[in-house]
Amino acid sequence: MSKARGRVTLPSQSGFLTETKEIMEKWGADALRDSDGTKLDQELKELDAKIYTTYFVARGHNDFAREHMDECQQMLLMSKRNLATSTELTIDFLDGYFREQVVPDYRHDPHTWWEVIDRTTGEVLPVSCWQVDTQKHLVLLEQAIPFHEYTVSFFVYAIWDPTQMYNHITNDWGDKPHEIPFDVRLPHSGRFATDYLTSWLKENPDTDVVRFTTFFYHFTLVFNEEAREKFVDWFGYGATVSIQAFEEFEAEYGYALRPEDIVDNGYYNTAFRVPTKAYLDYMDFIQRFVAKKAKELVDITHAAGKEAMMFLGDNWIGTEPYGPYFREIGMDAVVGSVGGGATLRLISDIPHVKYTEGRFLPYFFPDTFYEGNDPCVEAVENWLSARRALMRSPLDRIGYGGYLSLAYQFPKFIDYIAQVTEEFRTIYDNVKGKRPYCGLKVAVLNAWGRLRSWQTHMVAHALWYKQTYSYFGVLEALSGAAVDVSFLSFQDIRTGGIPADVDVILNVGDAGTAFSGGEEWLDPKLVTAIRQWVYGGGAFLGIGEPSAIHHQGRFFQLADVLGVDKELGYTLSTDKYFHTALSSHFITADAKDAFCFGESQHNIYALSRQTEILEYSDNEVHLAAHPYGKGRGVYISGLPYSHENTRLLMRAMYYAAHKEEAFRRWHTDNLFCEVHAYPETGKYAIVNNSNDTQSTVFYDGNGEATQVTLKPCQILWK
Fold first, then answer.
1. Which neighbouring-strand residues pair with 635?
2. Of the residues 105, 161, 183, 314, which is catalytic?
3. Which of 249, 251, 335, 660 has the most CB within a 10 Å radius?
4. Could you confirm whether 70 is annotated as catalytic?
5. Spatial contact of 237 and 263, defined as CB atoms under 8 Å apart
6. What SUPFAM superfamilies does this protein map onto (predicted)?
7. What digits encode the pLDDT tens for the residues 399-455?
8. Which fold has domain 60-207+220-308?
């Protein structure tokens, strides 16, 4: 039985009243929600609980959509690369795409809006050189150059919402109609969005919270010919484009967008790409439209006496909670999926809302809740990783999603979540509104800055990728660490300099990406500003290929700060004598086992005798520090998330900032334990982040030591 009630949202479904009441009691839930594919019947709505109702603004209204197929949402896609072997070439531009999701736009003249590009030269072909067969969906080139490659960039209509498509396939929805997305920028759809919400609110008097899922434009999710994901970018603006949007953009900005500004060589402007001016302009254009239109719906919701909640997923593009226009929407709450500490902070740190809510894993779907599987394994892992971040910046509410009838078949899981909800309420009561002790102010520097707070190196909302886990681990480590984290863009430094309260700048990522910076580092003003700041006592920590672009005989443009550079093969004739690692160092003092740098970087070498080499193997440097005037640089070749690497990162930051003497304030010597202090209240918590018993020496705010033992997963409040 729950000792307390509140701050927990439970998914339910029709015909599941008795079981819902039982779990509400066990978990102390005070809100009920439907999910994509479920509904709450009247008996459930009459329970003593706040009622969340999912609301789809631009999908789920097929009767309207079929009457206005010319207002379907659009996308710009790029065909496969096609090799010409003669002067004539036929391109099946839909090859590789799922034809139940997209159809070509022939309502607007392809010769006006499409592009055929010679990808060998980059030349855009004159429209006189190609024709479109609208019956067979082919582009016919008449003046191709043999053995050049060609692509077609073309507009399509999206005729199946990608999230509903995913759920349709995952949950085997059979003959359930395909939901058609429509574009509220267009006149009939724009009016329908406001008119339908007004009538819907009258028809749903039991709804307390309208859960907008989300507003208008889905993140870029395109399926292949086998109905499997072809391209997914959780930040992608690919589904915001339309002929009308292009025309309105040109009227406002004074220049026309090209299809290439969107398809971007087939990269589609993923968050890993350093954004172009045209793409940044287009994003700002979309964000302003979304904020204005979303505010209309939120105002209607408020006028009906309901709260407006936004789901941070699905159709969230343009809402950007850390962007300049989010405040104007007037949302009451944001809810999102919690994959770990970084995604929790992504939600919990959102400004300008009354409350935040996290959907914890696992979702109650058949891919997890099936006979023979133990969903508690995922639940424990998810809770422990997210709990670190809760101790720094708590959500206001937690909950789950999916089919409650599936979860109910696993009593062990139901009992475990009862423990989770109880512990969450305890954390919230002790932590909410209390500023935690922060030993350092850390700024993560990349091309996106604040706009992508807690969102670096994500592809599809914190899923694991071989090329990113060595960097995303930095965010995961920071999410629960006793540091104050901010996000800084290169443009921020150009226009305003480095904030005075920053102790450490982190630059993390592969060369050429938005997160490392690519061509941003060719700007002398930027490089000079950071060098001067570090020389005067600042700290720069680079992970992977920081400040990397080949220029003037350097690959790392801040190699002089870091004390290392990367061998590109151009300086193999230059002998490199510095390869002896120090036997001990402040940064490596807690290291007991072999270092784990993940995918790591290779061919890194020390520049001089002043470089403090801390790990050297396979004839390359993986960890180093370097004095630079009154400041320091530190280099790490990769940092996947682990307890050991979290400690390594903390030590590296304290060392770089010349604050070693403060390291043992509010500290534990056991890597699996952390302490979170709240000076305003005089409280602190020693946390066991593992599922095993741990003993640790705990250091209080004065550095005085005490031995404590913690049970598995225990939080010891003092």
1. 542, 624
2. 314
3. 335
4. no
5. no
6. Class I glutamine amidotransferase-like
7. 999 999 999 999 999 999 999 999 999 999 999 999 999 999 999 999 999 999 999
8. Immunoglobulin-like (2.60.40)
